[in-house]
Amino acid sequence: MPRASTEAVESAPAGAGHEAAGTPRLGLRILRSSTFRLVLVYAALFGISALLLLAFIYWSTAGYMTRQTEAAIEAEIDTFAERYRLTGMPGLIALIEERLRSNASIYLLTDPAFRPLAGNLARWPQSRSEGDGWLEFQVRRDEGVSQLALARAFTLRGDFHLLVGRDVRALTQTKRLITRTLAWGLGLTALLALAGGVLMSRSTARRIEAIRSTGLEIMRGDLSRRIPRDGSRDDFDQLAAHLNEMLDRIEASMDEVREVTDNIAHDLRTPLGRLRNQLEVLRARPGGEATDEVEAAIEEADRLLSTFNALLRIARIESGTLRSGFGEVDLTVLLRDLAELYEPAAQERGQRIALEVPPEARVPGDRDLLVQAFANLLDNAIKYSPEGGVVAMRLEDPPDGPVCVRVSDSGPGIPPEERDAVKRRFYRGESSRTTAGSGLGLSLVDAVARLHRAELVLGGGEDGLEVLWRFPHSAASAKGRRSRA
């Protein structure tokens, strides 16, 4: 197992990894937002309230009309029963015929065998009577239109049957109107709630997106970025103010730490350089002998100078000032030069470098820093691959995707639990303690990747390590524009 100690790279710049994974589109973020869910809860509560209100309206209108119709039928039945008691059958028939001339009610008087004696129905309705004698049935008028009727059956003395009813067409239409109103009301409520949720969520999503994008820039190393404020002094604006204040203090602390580190590196590099020169003079003194102790002291001084130089380079890279020197870099030529440079070192270990590159692949960047980063990766792969192993470098340049560089080997790999730690300065895995190195190689490559806003993914397993370097999509877009031109 590995190698967190030396000149290989592991990690992706925070933020670049997030972008490569892809962020949800605005519509999907709106649907997932807590604001949208809260609006849906309020819409459900409002819908239930509207449903209860419309149900009360239905009960108070259609129900009232139904009870009024039933009361009118009951009153007519009482009148007919009283007339039959006083005047007998002839008087009842005369009253029915009189009522038929004055209103559009439904009447039917039959004998015990249900044969019609008077009324405007040709036969007794087929609908079965409920326990209280009420009937609902279809009646066909002279114009051929079938309408719903509500009636009640009543049995007179002598087993004669009397049916008194009303046309409830208006009542039915009212019920349908209220039902349609209920459905439309609930539909409009849901539609307005969704529209309001989308509008509110879009506003919230835009402000959250501003915080997210600022956070990504800060994670890439630009500690000077701050969350924009709109001056509304609402919750988001106050949160942005507090976060900006926190970022100010973090930036100040980081600057202090960086300044101390740089000062230490500068202050110690000079005396170490003088010490090494004195050792060189001692070794080259006429008649003197270069003892093993002098040689060891010179090697230790070289190692310390290399460490301080690496710290200073990392500090310069992380400051972001080197981006001003970016130009167009042909990665095909760069990787070919590195493969040719490291081929002798690989052959000494019985290894082979397998290079696979397209004719051309250009990206914006700093060529010297990219050379240093990929050289660290290649050196690390050779160092940890066994004799007879293969170190592979593959450059991918798809027409509609980002440029990618893959460096893989057949070494022990890096365990997943250490892949987040190897980018830290001076970190060395347990199996790396016996290998020469300062633990700054990965930090240096990580700093170069952050400067180029590239994504670094460490993969592979026990049979080897694969490092993927994926340049940002903006670089791919520029490449596409050049190819179309």
What do these coordinates show?
By secondary structure, the chain is of the alpha+beta class. It has a domain at 223-317: Signal transduction histidine kinase, dimerisation/phosphotransfer (DHp) domain (Helix Hairpins). The protein contains ten helices and twelve strands. Strands 2-1-5-4-3 form a five-stranded antiparallel sheet. The protein has a five-stranded mixed sheet with strand order 7-9-10-12-11. α7 (331-348) packs parallel to α8. The two termini are 47 Å apart. The model is unreliable at 4-23, 430-437 and 480-485 (pLDDT under 50).
Low-confidence stretches: 4-23, 430-437, 480-485
The CATH topology of the domain at 223-317, please?
Answer: Helix Hairpins
Helical coverage, percent range: 55-70%
Shape: rod-shaped
Mean pLDDT: 75
